[in-house]
Every structure is written in C-alpha cells, then in structure tokens.
Predict the structure.
Amino acid sequence: MSRLLVTGGAGFIGSNFIHYWIHRHPEDRLVVLDSLTYAGNPANLEAAAEHPSFRFVQGDIRDQELVEELLRREALETIVHLAAESHVDRSISGPDLFIDVNINGTHSLLKAARRVWLEGDKNAFPKPRFHHVSTDEVYGSLGPGDAAFTESTPYRPNSPYAASKAASDHLVRAYQHTYGLPTTISNCSNNYGPYQFPEKLIPLCIVNLLSGKTLPIYGDGQNVRDWLHVEDHCRGLELILKDGRIGEIYNIGSRNEQTNLDLVRLLCRSMDNLFAKRSELGDRYPEAPPSRGQLCEESLEFVTDRLGHDRRYAIDSSRLEGELGFGSTITFDRGMESTLLWYLDNEPWWRAVMDESYREWMTDQYGKSGSPPAGA
Ligand code: NAD
Ligand code: DAU
C-alpha cells in the first residue's frame, strides 16, 4: 500500500487524478491538500469522499508547518504536486500571485519534504518520492518546422505563468541535486476533459455555445497546441510514480497538434451533430446556436491576441514511451466527444463554478466540515 499527498487535488487534473487513482489503487491512502481557490472545487471530489482511505484537507502549500504535520501524522511517502495558479491570461494580468504560489509554494513543499523525509526518522519513510507536475510551456514557443520539445530543450518560458513553473522545476531539480531529495518531474502538454474550469479554451467554448455567447479566438487562430486527454496524463503520472527514475524528467504528450481554429471548428461540428441527434438538447439549451437555427461556427469571433502569445507547442514523449511503455489510449475525436457530453450532462456543475457566491458558500461549508456538503 502507498500513502500519497496530492496537492491541488480539487482542481481539474488533480481531481481526475484522484478518481483515476482510487479506481486503480483502491487500497492506497490518499490525502488531498488544496486551498480551494476559484479553480479548486469540492464538488469535483464528491465521489472520492465516499472512499474510506480518502481525506481532504483545506490548506495552503505555502504553510510548511501544516505540510510537515500531514506528512508525519499520515506517514505520507509520496507527494504528487499539482497545486498551482494555472491560467496564462490571469498570470498576464496579475503575475504576483503566480510567483508566490508556484515558486514559493513549491519551495515550501520541498522544504517540508526534506525536513520530514531526510532529516527526521528515515526508517519511517524508506522510499519517499516527490513528483512535480509541470508544463511544456517552460520550453517556450516553436516555429512551424521546429522539432518537438524534448527533455533537453533549453528552458525559454515566455509568460509569467510559464516562468513561475520553470522556476519551480529548477527548485525541484536543485533539491534533488543538492540534498538528495528523491524527485521526478513531468512536463505535460495541454490537457482537456471533465472538471476543467471554463476559462480554458475548450470548456470556455462549450459553455459559451450553450449560453448563446461568442467564441473568442485570439489573434489569427493559428496558434498550435498539443492536446492530451487528462486520463492519459494520469496514466503517464502513474507510470512515473511507479517506475520513473529518481532525478529524471519526463515529457508527457500524444503528438496531437491542432490549431486553435481547427479545434474550435471541430467542437462546433460536434455540437451541431449532437443537437441534430438529440432533440431534447434544444429545450435544455435554447440559447445555443442550433436551437436558434444557426451553425455553431457562426459564433466564432476573432479578438485581440494574448500578450506574448506562444505560437506553437509540440511535445516529444519518446522517453516516457521507450522507458516506461507510455502510450495515449484516448483518440482526440473520442476524447472531445466525451468531454462535450460531460459538459452537456453536467450543467449544474459548470453553472455553479461560474457563480461566485455559490462557490464561496461551498468553500465555507467544505472547509468547516472537512467533507463535501451532501448533494453538492
Ligand atoms: P487548476 O487551476 O484546475 O487547479 C489548481 C488547483 O490548485 C486548484 O484546486 C487550486 O485550489 C489549488 N491551489 C492553488 N493554489 C494553491 C495553494 N496555494 N495551496 C493549495 N492549493 C492550491 O489547474 P490544473 O489545470 O488542474 O493544473 C494542475 C497542475 O498541472 C498545475 O501545476 C499546472 O501547472 C500543471 N499542468 C496543467 C496543464 C493543463 O493543461 N491544465 C498541462 C500541464 C501541466
Ligand atoms: O501547455 C500546457 C498548458 O496548457 C498548461 O500549463 C496551462 O496550465 C494550461 O492553462 C494550458 O495553457 P494554454 O494557454 O495553452 O491554454 P488555454 O486554454 O488558456 O489556451 C489554449 C489556446 O487557445 C491558446 O493558444 C490561447 C487560445 N485561446 C484561449 C482562450 C482562453 C483563445 O484563442 N481564446 C480564449 O478565449
């Protein structure tokens, strides 16, 4: 049995990771540490809360004392570090929080792990592991003919978000090199799937269509991202946690480059088809273009570009594939359709996360009781 601390477990990837892990390793102890920012949602963990070996702790990764106490009291030997401020646009309008949470927060966790695992009772933690979840954005931006990012591509982060993640990667590496903290790092491409906050491109477009709003395409829409279904990301993390070499870095991706415009058009066609097949959707979503006799694509709107917008990301995950047998299992068409269906069928979820007063109430309830409110 393993005992894991998962930071940021109430966010998009974190909550998917928790569901994935409980399904695959029901015997393991799972403790989530999450401060429940706007992006952390207790409702994402409702199913997990039923599980006897799951525990949620509302708290901040910058609280070193709390983390040390959790590691000791729960005898946690693995940290899967996902907590971060994650949205590039927010980092452009307000970089300070990103520097504090992503850099100082990661440093605080590293200090806690070092103190408890390396300076405390070593026999209590015979095989510790700190896994840091990072991003392909640390490598910067590619031109059209450039080779995909490998683990030895030099870091050239362009946004405050990417720079803060790059700094956190360097700290993790330094703690491994200097103090011998057993660490691994993964740099993953763009994720999509259920429970993603509707500020990121795919869920934003889905909820905008269903609410009769336009689809904002930055610049010329030709920026390229390399999309991976979140469940495949979790599979990659599982392989690294199980057999990844200490001190190593692993890229995670599935060679699925799409321009933003192509991706949004695919989403539009899928939505049109679903509305044509399922007549009840017209009643449920009267504002959606198909309910008003329009094609979804008519909602596209080109808007001012993101400052410093990276042109292209592409990730080479040969190391993970070759060493640990990674391969993505969810095709883009299938993943997009299931994601679209998830948002269609979970309207209360996305309406609630977008309603701040409801979120505040939930966070308040959850923080006090230590488990999600019934029916949330
Ligand atoms: P998210 O924004 O959905 O979730 C972040 C979670 O961290 C939230 O639950 C939030 O409440 C929590 N959090 C934030 N600050 C905290 C703090 N100070 N203390 C404790 N908890 C805090 O993010 P995500 O998209 O799930 O990304 C998770 C991780 O994966 C991040 O580190 C991100 O950089 C990385 N990543 C994301 C993607 C992607 O496409 N979304 C791709 C590659 C890597
Ligand atoms: O590459 C991994 C990264 O992917 C993660 O590290 C980040 O946490 C995650 O947010 C994501 O960053 P991006 O900036 O690539 O994702 P986002 O969904 O914000 O944007 C995807 C692309 O779509 C990007 O080129 C900007 C564009 N876009 C985005 C929004 C929100 C638009 O054209 N319109 C929009 O409204």
